[in-house]
Each structure stands twice: as C-alpha cells, then as structure tokens.
Write a structure and sequence with these properties.
- This protein has a single domain, classed as NADH Oxidase (3-Layer(aba) Sandwich).
- The protein has 6 helices and 4 strands.
- The structure holds flavin mononucleotide (FMN).
- The site of flavin mononucleotide (FMN) has 12 residues, from β3.
- The site of flavin mononucleotide has 12 residues, from β3.
Length: 182
C-alpha cells in the first residue's frame, strides 16, 4: 500500500511526495481543491508570466476520456479529480519549466492533505484531442494534467528506496569531487 500521510514537517512533506496512481474513488473535498488552486496560483514562473490556465475536471466520464487519449495518463481513469494545464503557447522551454513547478506544487498541496496525485503526459496528438475535448483555444498548448485522489489501500506497494544515493549525485566544488559535510 502506498500512503500519503498529512504532515506538518515541511522537509518530510517534500521527501515523502510520491507518484500516486491508484485511487479509492472518494471525491476531493472542495476546501482541498481550493487550496490546490491557491497554491497553483502562487507558483513562480519565468518573468512572472503565469503562462497557465487550469481546467478542473470532476466529471468521471470526462476524466475517463482524458485518461484514454494518446499518452501516459491512463492511470488517471479512476481519479475523482483531474486538473489539465493549458499553457500560453509562447516559449515552450520556459513554459515547460513553469509547468513542472506548478504541477509539483499542486501535488504537494494535495499531499499536505493526505491526498495522492501524479502528473500524466499526453502525446502531441493526445494534447490536441484534449484541447478539442475541453474547448481550449487554438493558440494554447496542452501537454499534461495532474490527477488527484485518496490513495487506494489495495495499491501496489511503494518502493522503499527509489532514489540514487547522494554520494552518486552531489559534488563538492567541481564535478567528480565527493560532496562532504565535514
Ligand atoms: C516530468 C515528469 C513527467 C512524468 N510523466 C508521467 C506520466 O506521463 N505518467 C505517469 O504515470 N507518471 C509520470 N511521471 C511520474 C514519474 O514516473 C515518477 O515521479 C517517478 O517514477 C518517481 O516515482 P515516485 O515519485 O513515486 O518515487 C512523471 C514525472 C515527471 C517529473
């Protein structure tokens, strides 16, 4: 079982965030959704462009259709809430960075409430299908969504240690010098 437990320790909140892909079907309470969107709104972006619109989808049938478009978001079929991110369609490199930041922050806001989430990417054709499905204007760019839900108790067990050791990825002063705190 993969758990997401409310925590008031900010560092623990960050290190315990996991991609939750299986949900128990309970709806997300409105105050939690309000927090998720409030956090999204306050996310930083390049030049403070805020190049995003958030399409909140709670209709289960539409969510199932979103999960079915071409891409890697099939896991979201049973989610009670999906937020599709529509980007302005300007500089894609910059907007990609902003998209990642805001996605992660929405996941963290949910996690703070004990709710799981994961990002799901659409292929270019999948993104085009989503635009049509949700009446997103022509010039905008859709590449991903975030699905939310209370973690299913019957989910696959989480991997206990799924990150590279710090010694492998942190360097001191120059590349290749082992990082040390002493
Ligand atoms: C940029 C990015 C794109 C991702 N796209 C998908 C996706 O399309 N579908 C999916 O199921 N998970 C997606 N993930 C989730 C990753 O697979 C997950 O964060 C990674 O395997 C680590 O899992 P953990 O956080 O549960 O340890 C994506 C994550 C990131 C950061």
């Amino acid at each position: 079982m993969t758990e997401t437990t409310p925590t008031t320790d900010p560092i623990r909140l960050l290190t315990s965030l996991r991609a939750i892909r299986e949900y128990d079907g309970r709806p997300i309470p409105d105050p939690v959704l309000a927090d998720i969107l409030r956090v999204a709104r306050w996310s930083g972006s390049a030049r403070n462009d805020q190049p995003w619109d958030f399409i909140v989808v709670r209709d289960r049938e539409t969510i199932a259709r979103l999960a079915g478009v071409d891409g890697s978001a099939g896991f979201a079929a049973g989610a009670p809430l999906v937020i599709v991110i529509a980007l302005a369609g300007g500089l894609k490199l910059r907007e990609s960075y902003d998209e990642g930041r805001v996605s992660e922050r929405m996941m963290l806001a949910a996690h703070a409430h004990g709710i799981g989430a994961n990002t799901g990417w659409f292929s270019p054709t999948g993104g085009a299908a989503v635009k049509e499905m949700l009446a997103i204007p022509e010039g905008k760019w859709v590449r991903s969504m975030v699905a939310f839900g209370y973690p299913a108790t019957t989910g696959r067990p989480g991997k206990p240690d799924v990150r590279k050791p710090l010694a492998e990825i942190a360097h001191e002063g120059r590349f290749g010098e082992p990082f040390g705190t002493e």
